[in-house]
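Below is the data:
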Amino acid sequence: MAELSQEIAAYEAIRGDLEAKYLSQWALVHDCKLIDIFPSFEAAADFAVKNFGRGPYLIRQVGSPPVTLPASVMYRFT
C-alpha cells in the first residue's frame, strides 16, 4: 500500500495530461495509479471509501491547487 506522499507524486507525474483532458473534474489516485475521474468530490469519495476503506488515497480536483486538511477531518459517506 502506498503512502499519501507516493499518491501525490503519482498524481504530479500525470497532472499535465489530466489538466489537458479533465480540468475541474476530480481524480482518484490509489496505490500510485489513477483509478478514475469523477464529476464531483462526493462521487470520488464515495467510490474510494467503498472500494479502499480508510485509504490512503488521493482525491484532487484537476487544475486546482492542493488543499491541506487537518488529520482530524474525515469524509463520512451516508
In short: The chain has a mean pLDDT of 89. The chain has one domain: 4-61. The longest strand covers residues 33-38. Strands lie at 26-30, 33-38, 58-61.
